[in-house]
Fold this protein.
Amino acid sequence: MTPEQWETIGRLVDWLDRENGRDAHERALRLIKLTEEVGEVGQAYVGLTGQNPRKGVTHTSADVADELCDVIVTAAVALHSFSRDPAATFAAKLDAITARTFGPPPTTR
């Protein structure tokens, strides 16, 4: 995510903190919200594939993508409750995944 996107996430967190507080219960609810959003991804995918014969095809690939974006935003908001520097935490995790998957970056001469 870009610095501007992290700034927007921070504004969302500040807004939620003002509206709902930031106690342990609210932190738990932000995690539960993430579970809800993941469920909506699954629902959209079922609708995309028409897996439910009673309903047929009810969603598009764009609907699935939209729900995945909700998951990303919700996870970034929740990350603020568990990290003092969520952008750095996310960057470090992505770097670790990259190194584990592709190996260390090549050295330059």
